[in-house]
């Protein structure tokens, strides 16, 4: 079994991959839900996710990592520790007290950061984080995600000039769960059809 297959099965065991009817942040109803916030409850699976991203991150040139709160932050910390690379994170709103900082952690303007998050559906939350980092004088050429939901977000970011790398895709997850008899052929095909219909 490959490392990525093992990660997929562990995510399924954890309940981070669920089938049913779920309303997404966009308001759209999805037959599958990904909840990587659960990774904090299973360090071994969090470590696997970080290792999957480390293989991708090692190809990029960057001064420090940046993680998007909330779900991306534990993944960013795990990756930071695995690679022994410094981490910062943007707040969606600047602090209203203390230092009033919008970017937490140590950095210098002009540095290049590798932006890390858990899942990409559309690109909106990534663009918000990029805007905060760029406003602080940082360069954000590359983004790193655990899972691409294959809902157009990756292509939108690529079209805007960013590089995007994902350890897993929705279809790779579905294919693995089907091959390991975690889901039926019918469930697999229905979700793939739903994804394809969204792209038309």
Question: Characteristics of this structure?
Answer:
200 residues, alpha/beta, Rossmann fold, six-stranded mixed sheet, 8 strands
* Main beta-sheet annotation: 6 strands, mixed
Task: Label the overall shape.
Answer: globular
The share of residues in extended strands comes to 15-25%
Mean pLDDT: 94
Please write the CATH class name: Alpha Beta
Radius of gyration, CA atoms, in whole angstroms: 17 Å
How is the topology of this model organized?
Layout (H helix, E strand, L loop, with lengths): L2 H12 L2 E7 L5 E6 L8 H15 L6 E4 L4 H12 L3 E4 L12 E2 L7 E9 L3 H12 L3 E10 L4 H7 L3 E7 H10 L5 H15 L1
Parallel strand pairs: 3-4, 3-6, 6-7, 7-8
Antiparallel strand pairs: 1-2, 4-5
Describe the 3D structure.
The chain has 200 residues and is an alpha/beta fold. It has a single domain (3-199), classed as Rossmann fold, CATH 3.40.50. Helix content is 42%, strand content 24%. The protein has helices at residues 3-14, 43-57, 72-83, 124-135, 153-159, 170-179, 185-199, and strands spanning 17-23, 29-34, 64-67, 87-90, 103-104, 112-120, 139-148, 163-169. It has a 6-stranded mixed beta sheet, with helices on both faces. Strands 1-2 form a two-stranded antiparallel ribbon. The radius of gyration is 17 Å and the shape is globular. The model has no long low-confidence stretch (mean pLDDT 94).
Write a concise synopsis of the structure shown.
The protein has 200 residues and is an alpha/beta fold. Helix content is 42%, strand content 24%.
């Amino acid at each position: 079994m490959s490392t990525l297959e093992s990660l997929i099965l562990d995510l399924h065991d954890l309940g981070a991959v669920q089938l049913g009817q779920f309303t997404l942040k966009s308001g759209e109803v999805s037959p599958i839900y990904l909840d990587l916030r659960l990774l904090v409850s299973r360090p071994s699976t969090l470590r696997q996710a970080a290792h999957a991203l480390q293989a991708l991150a090692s190809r990029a040139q960057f001064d420090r990592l940046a993680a998007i709160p909330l779900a991306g932050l534990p993944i960013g910390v795990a990756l930071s520790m695995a690679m022994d690379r410094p981490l910062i994170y943007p707040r969606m709103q600047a602090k209203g007290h203390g230092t009033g900082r919008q970017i937490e952690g140590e950095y210098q303007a002009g540095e290049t950061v590798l932006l890390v998050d858990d899942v990409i559906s559309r690109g909106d939350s990534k663009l918000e984080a990029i805007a905060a980092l760029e406003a602080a004088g940082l360069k954000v050429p590359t983004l790193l995600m655990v899972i691409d939901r294959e809902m157009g977000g990756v292509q939108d970011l690529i079209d805007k000039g960013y590089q995007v790398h994902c350890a897993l895709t929705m279809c790779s997850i579905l294919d693995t769960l089907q091959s390991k008899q975690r889901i039926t052929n019918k469930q697999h095909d229905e979700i793939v059809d739903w994804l394809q219909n969204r792209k038309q």
